[in-house]
Amino acid sequence: MKLKFLIDKEYIFLHAFNRGQREEPFKGWGNFTMKIWDKHPQECYLLAGFSEWPLIKRDNLKNLSIKAQKLLNQWLKAPQVKRLIRETGKYQDWVEREWKKVGDTALNELQKITKIPLPQKTISVYITHPKLRNGVTLNQKTIVWGHPEDWKNYSVVYICHEIMHTIFWENKSKNSHAIIELVTDNELRIRLNKKGKYFKEKKFGIGHEHLRKIEQKILPRWKDYLKNKGKKNIFELERELRKIVK
Questions:
Q1: Whole-angstrom Cα distance, residue 87 to residue 83?
Q2: What is the pLDDT of residue 187?
Q3: Domain span at residue 12?
């Protein structure tokens, strides 16, 4: 498995644009985007909530107006957007360096934990500004990522989390998501950092709270699964857990 770290200027802008006033990559961004909304509300509504459109086929987006595209091209030239893209580019370089240092080890550990060979494919990782907390799997070959490094190896661990979503792509459920969190957010994190405990890292709670009940319920079987080397892989465990967690 290989990862290709990429920059798409339109996506970087639209992802930050759609965060609105909630989160700013830097001071003044909220005022900049609000002025755009006030001046071009109709075009902004076309673009709002659909920041991933530059990463998929434009032919499928017939409702995106020509005027909105022209405005988007114009906004990309703004000093604020140039700063956004410049800072994201620096972050991309940092993430790529981190992956080069730790990525192979992380993937090897991932194979040991899941007990399956990882798919021989290339995954595109589109980077967004780290302050805007982004982490989504768009399809089996495309991930988007940008987040502060809350603790050591944070980005590597959660990129692996998204990789696991590509592996479980045909089986999206709360159970599979809970297993992914046990695999990456917890077990992989502890192995890479050579210390730690489940569900807690420094001041941070680990994983989604709405999945915690499932994870606590299946934790004994999970621990048994890790001890029994080679007897059961991650897919077999997930099928077994369907009978327990419904």
A1: 6
A2: 98
A3: 2-241
